[in-house]
Amino acid sequence: MKRSSFLLALLPFGFALQAVAAEAPKPLKVLLITGGCCHDYAAQKDILKKGIEARANVTVEQIHTDDKSTKPPLPIYGNPAYAKGFDVVIHDECSAGITDPAIIKGVIQPHLDGIPAVNLHCAMHCYRFGDFKAPVAKGADNAAWYEYLGLQSTGHGPQEPIAITFTDKASPITKGLADWTTMKEELYNNIQILTGQGLAKGKQTVKDKEVETVVVWTNEFGPKKTKVFSTTIGHNNATVEDARYLDLVTRGLLWSAGKLKDDGTPAEGYGPVKR
Description:
Distance between the termini: 39 Å
Shape: globular
Radius of gyration: 21 Å
Number of strands: 11
Structural class: alpha/beta
CATH class of the domain at 25-155 and 215-256: Alpha Beta
Strand content: 25-35%
Helix content: 25-40%
CATH topology of the domain at 25-155 and 215-256: Rossmann fold
């Protein structure tokens, strides 16, 4: 075969390879926000990034501060467009002292606009003010963050193991996942469940008394029904680096972005990739 004929024969294969490359999905762009009071965010931000990127076709970019106050100086404050260009935002900050309604509205704005979200542990105790220990009323000034989450929590008990039971085993987030008991962790209370759909409960024994609350749930938020996944688990590094925790969080992330199949596996092209 002449060289020119040989090259012509290869052309269809070249076009096929180009088509495959063109169809390969781009990684989801994920924004991870960490910093504030009471947690080892310096370590956990890297544990989460490494663990999630190993489990799904995502790239995790970080906004982090080493400030350990309840008012960490995160650059998202006063910038409602902070999530522009991202597919999902993970809120893992601990900002209980941020109480300005205008700032809080700006934090929520990307999710009102339709950007999916994941909320971990102390994110549930952020952006609260007024009589937040009482059930908030729908539409009240201090209800905005809880309405976004779909559940109101205001505090927690001591650090003791938590027995996690998946109560909705049909959800793609939980399908096939086994119940487990954490090491010492904080069990967050449930003041009220607003629009959240519970996926798992956690049970903790404190002074011979059993306490049980919802610890994993989903929500559809705002007029665009933005998908929001939340878990109150994740205080200590030992839990955050637990493969079972990282599996759960990654599934929640993929679900929020519409990239999780009904059987709990990533949508085509969004599973683990070589880096």
